[in-house]
Amino acid sequence: VLFILNGLERLNLDFRLAGTELCCDPNEPVPPSAIVVNLLRKYLLPEASIIVTTRPSAVRRIPGKYVGRYAEICGFSDTNLQKLYFQMRLSQPGCSGEYSVGSSSGEQENLVEMLSRNLERHNQIAAACFLPSYCWLVCTTLHFLYFTRTVPPSQTLTGIYTSFLRLNFSGEVLDSTDPTNISMMKYVAKTVGKLAYEGVMSRKTCFSEDDLQQCFEVEMKTESELNLLEVFRSDVFRFFLTPCVQPGKEHTFVFTIPAMQEYLAALYVVLGEKKTLAQRVGKELSEFIGKVSEDVAVVLNIISKVLPLRFLPVLFNLLKIFPRYFSRLSGKDRDAIAHTMAEELFKEEDYYNDDVLDQINSSILGVEGPMRHPDDAPDDEVFELFPIFMGGILSRRNRAILEQLGCSIKNLAAFEIAKAMKKTVIRNSRKGLPPSELMDYLFFLHEFQNERFTAEAIHSLRTVNLSSVKMTPLKCSVLASVVGTTCHEVEELNLTSCNLDTSSLRILFPVLLRCKALHLQLNSLGSDACKEIRDLLLHDKCVVSNLRLANNPVGEQGAQYLAEALAGNRSLTHLSLLHTALGDQGAEVIAQHLAKNQHLQELNLGYNSLTDTAALHVVEVAKKHAMLDKVHLYFNDISEEGKRALHSLRMDRDGVRALVFLTAGTDVSDYWSHILNVVQKNLPFWDRERVRQHLALILQDLESSRRQTANPWRKAKFLRVESEVKKMLGKLQHGT
């Protein structure tokens, strides 16, 4: 028989004969501790084998004469074992029961390869993954980042870290022999949390031995407290803090996983451990006065009846005022927590960093392209997860898990913090945040898991600008979930250059329906995506009035889907298909369906390789349209004859204006600045040689028209426009 006794430190065993009697009969009823002691003495079932697991601090509780062999379980000493674990873990259907059919094995293999490469060159991550439980945390985080596609996401990042701590410390008491019986996680929050918080506030991640002593030992007064600290240092310290491997910092410590510093700092603040000396003294006095108030009341009542001392009841009432006054001060503490959260969430120096999800991804998988050595310290530490973790810890689910770990956060406290946050967080969010910071704000609302609060916060956001944020499936799910808490219309949603694909549009479909202006430029959206956009525009609840699809490979097939959408849509007034590879066939298809549309006012078909025939057909159809007022046709392959034909068709009296060239006969076009602005904005994304050729033709046309006019005012206008075109050509030639 093999007995495995897990967690010896939870038992207070007494190996003295006077404390535990001898017992060799398995049938004799004795207390559980006596059974364990006699098993270990080899007095009961001497043939049995026994394996005992324990924390280092409790190893000596079993006398050495009863132990045949000591072994310390350290972790993955071989990096190949780490890689094997990651390969097996990331190839499973999902570490949290969640999996998407769309996530291919190729993507999983790519993740394993990137992670392995980062482990080889990044010693600090390899040191963290020495502990198998941290390998679990890395894999669970990667699953969350890459394979979350449900709306709303089934878990939160804060939830992953809270579950990780429950996995390791659920039911753990720091020292079972200590009368305070403090839970291990509560002790970690008070000590390591303080170190983490001070590091976040001073923007540092490396801590010296002096820093550790200041946080752990400065308030130690009694022998009991020092014993607890000794147990903590031997059992738990190395789990959270590890020696730094950066050159020149060998004698300092860093958090094993960087994000854990921000989590513990957030826990330290939310638990209310961050108190001034006056607040601590006030709390102790309040508790003391509260305990003795009933006894004092009895005594004072008796004395006041015997002696005619009228001031005693007054004194008693004054004593009762203090706890009430302190309760008001504790309410101020919750205001301070809310203020800290808002202040950290909207720090202007963090406005132009990557969003937090990209930061986490980079910390695990590394950064693509040339960079400094991964173990070198960055120029400035970023702690943008700290306020997000504060919000996440306040969610009901995480509070329930933390309650099991001995870290209690009352419902009333969470409610009052949320109430105080409305004054600061929502007001700051209205200022107009940069895209990456806005994504962090949306992620904060998701982590907070308070639907009512989120609805109020989102209702004040009428414009959502996430341009250039890499919108992974997780970020799309967060956006859809957060915006989905309300049903109000969004004035503008800017998703320019966000790496969107067809699956992204499916996830965001309910949000896109409610957007009046929708910017989807520069997203590599092909014909499959256009099929989704067609379904969007034909939906009876669609309110999209301005749709920009510029610089996407729409093609002829995509044009077919968009033409079908135009025929049945009732909300769209402005459509931009600038540089979408339509060609003549795509433009013809759109022209054929345009007649069935009654609401479109502006159509941009610029830079689509249209020839004379297609361009003329589009303008002729536009002339007959009831509402269509403006058609953009610049930067197409239109000849001089086509130009003259278009000029005869585009007169204002025909009810449609065709923007083709910078000239209008012997005058400058009214829209020359608009056309040049469009070119200027899109220069980084267009074929430079082709743009240069078009600009050269425009310059020739301007010079020719200038020579034909005798009006000095018009000549001056031509010269001004020519100078702008020459500047643009100069920038192209110099590659700027």
UniProtKB/TrEMBL annotation:
PANTHER family: NACHT, LRR AND CARD DOMAINS-CONTAINING. It holds the Pfam family NLRX1_C. The keyword Hydrolase does not apply. Residues 668-729 form the NLR family member X1 C-terminal domain. Gene3D superfamilies: Ribonuclease Inhibitor. Residues 1-86 form the NACHT domain. It comes from the Eukaryota. This is NLR family member X1. The keyword Zinc-finger does not apply. One of its GO terms (molecular function) is ATP binding. Keywords: ATP-binding, Leucine-rich repeat, Nucleotide-binding, Repeat.
